[in-house]
Amino acid sequence: MNGGSRMQYLKEEIKKRILIAALDEFKEKGYLSASVRNIASNADTALGTVYKYFRNKEDLFNSVVESVYSDLFATINKIIVADVNPNEKLIEIKNRILDIFKGNSKEVLILFGKSKGSKYENFKNEVVDVFHNIIQKEIFSRFEDKSIVKEPFIFYVLSTNFVEGLYTILKTQEDGEKISILIDQLMFFSFHGTESRFKEMSHI
To answer: Is the CB of residue 9 less than 8 Å from the CB of residue 1?
Structure first.
């Protein structure tokens, strides 16, 4: 390895250490409370060195989560416009979130619960909106008798509860198989047989 190549390698290693330290800092403290000074210390580098690679804390935070956010919503948007059953869309979106979580668990947890103050602070609400729109516009629209739903706002509540439950499972469970089972159960009790359950309720 010549001098130039070695220097480039060292620069990449330093940047990698900074990003790893930033990932842990943001996951533990969230965007607002995270300290660039702590990140530099945990990366075993000088504070000034961090600012050679990243303009500020916002730039560093974006570098940590942006690719995961973009990848997730690029896939979600493809699923939304696909010509498939809406229930299959819900399942596919859930599966995609799980797939990304398996390789990027810290980034996903940061987006869900530690991004307040950043441009990603509405991430959880955006995920809620995805599920809500599919239920409201595609599933409810196919109900034979829409009058059985007295207040359609319930679909937003169901979507919110599902996403909150999803986040709770992801942040508290570590076993991949258990996570999949719990989320499948959550999805079943949240969305399965929606029309038939509303019909049953309308007769109470």
So the answer is: yes
CB 96 within 8 A of CB 75: yes
Q: Mean pLDDT throughout 35-41?
A: 98
pLDDT digits (tens, 9 = 90+) for 68-121: 999 999 999 999 999 999 999 999 999 999 999 999 999 999 999 999 999 999
Pull the structure tokens for residue 147. Answer: 């009058």
For 189-199, b/e burial (b = at least 16 CB within 10 A) is ebbeebbeebe
The length of the chain in residues reads 204
Supply the CATH number for residue 43's domain.
1.10.10.60
Count CB-CB contacts under 10 A for residue 93: 19
With beta carbons less than 8 A apart as the criterion, state whether 147 and 159 touch.
no
Rounded distance, CA 72 to CA 81, Å? 15
Question: Is residue 39 domain-shared with residue 73, that is, in the same domain?
Answer: no
Shared-domain flag, residues 26 and 114: no
119 SS3 class: coil
DSSP letter, residue 151: -
Q: What is the pTM of this model?
A: 0.92
Domain span at residue 162 reads 65-202
Percent of residues in the chain assigned helix, strand, coil, to nearest 5: 80, 0, 20
